[in-house]
Design goal:
The protein is an alpha/beta fold. Helices cover 28% and strands 20% of the residues. The protein has three domains: 79 residues, Archaeosine Trna-guanine Transglycosylase, Chain: A, domain 4 (Roll); 123 residues, 3-Layer(aba) Sandwich (Rossmann fold), CATH 3.40.50; 226 residues. Helix 2 packs across helix 3, helix 2 crosses helix 10 and helix 5 packs across helix 12.
Length: 492
Amino acid sequence: MQIIKIHPLDNVAVALEDIPAGAELSAEGVSIRAAEPVARGHKIALKPIRKGEEIIKYGVTIAGATEDIAVGQWVHSHNAKTLLNEGGEYKYDHKVYALPEVAERSFKGFRRRDGRAAIRNEIWIVPIVGCVNGIAKQIADSTQVLVKDTLEGIYYWGHPFGCSQLGGDLEQTKKLLAALVRHPNAAGVLCLELGCENLTHELFTEELGEYDPERVKFLRCQDVSDDVAEGVKLVTELAEYAYGFEREDIPASELVVGMKCGGSDGMSGITANPAVGRFSDRLIALGGSTVLTEVPEMFGAENILFSRCENEEVFGKAVKMVNDFKDYFVSHGQVVYENPSPGNKAGGITTLEDKSCGCVQKGGSAQIVDVLSYAETVTKKGLNLLSGPGNDLVSATALTAAGAHLILFTTGRGTPFGAPAPTVKISTNTALFEKKGSWIDFNAGTVAEGESLDDAGDRLLELVLEIAGGRKTKSEEAGIREISIFKDGVVL
């Protein structure tokens, strides 16, 4: 199969491999000849499309033709443009789809004293202000000898914020860092302060709320003569605490999994993203939770999600989330459709609608049970939407803060980064999987080669349970894990 027509209403197909000019092609009973070369992931016209007519993919409009397009021609940004604008009216049109039947499953995880499940048993050093990043690194480097028995790692999460911030930015930093401190994958946490930052101890602990002093410790570097030695002492105490946890059987219903994409290509919406959607439906059928973010990459496809909000209250929160992000763009003098990236376009994605319709497929077909603000934590079982940008590091950090035990990250171009939560890289095409084996954990390119999406979803569920049980992701093996905090305003 060289091309695929995704939906019966589509007037374009997607090339599953590089197509030479003159190739005879067929899709869903339609036979055409390629009028020019079309690269893998790019679109080819199945019928004549007049200038001004809509280009249909996934059964919805993803662009408007800027010139006449003949059958067999390549369809991309040279002859198509977005039809998005800053407006948009939304009506609640509730739809419910059946979830698959899945046999009960479990994983080998850790049970925290407060009853929460975890998939890693680590110590996290969290700088409350960027000034102490270097000290955090020294403490982490000096305590690696403690990583033994059931303690699986000691990490620090450097960032540039916590001071010289005003209003909303300081509030977001405070909420994000507090959410990381509460994350169950951290058996113990050392909060590292400087002593003169805007994000004071009082402000931070108020946000953090009640905490177990055996699990969470604080060090103010300006108050001690040897900050590294004091930090090593505290991490040693946390390690003794962490050694007390061992893996045990935990129902899959307690898993929380984040979902995002980056370096997407024209195959993303055909292979990897819908495979993740099948996984999401399976985990939710088991009683678990998934989280979908990247609000700007919902623009143009938001109604696909809105129709699955379980009630009008959730629908209202989802509409507000999207409109707030549109206002964010407009307030900075930017158009809402300033997307896709150069890499996306090279991979075959033409407009934001094109990208978004592929992106939202990660959400599967389950009901949306809640809409979370940035740095807010999942409290409801099922599919959750999370407010956050498309930026990979920022959104993956936000998913971790939301309580995701691990993150599924689909990519057609490839990327090495990892979030604090184990980050599972899923390739949209087999060529990437074979080329970047040190980056990619799961190949969804097999869907383009004949594997069913249901089978890919089943395979992905098995991998997730293995990783939840201790198998390391490629980014974990490489030691690539970091955070990035959403910033909007003034730096003093």
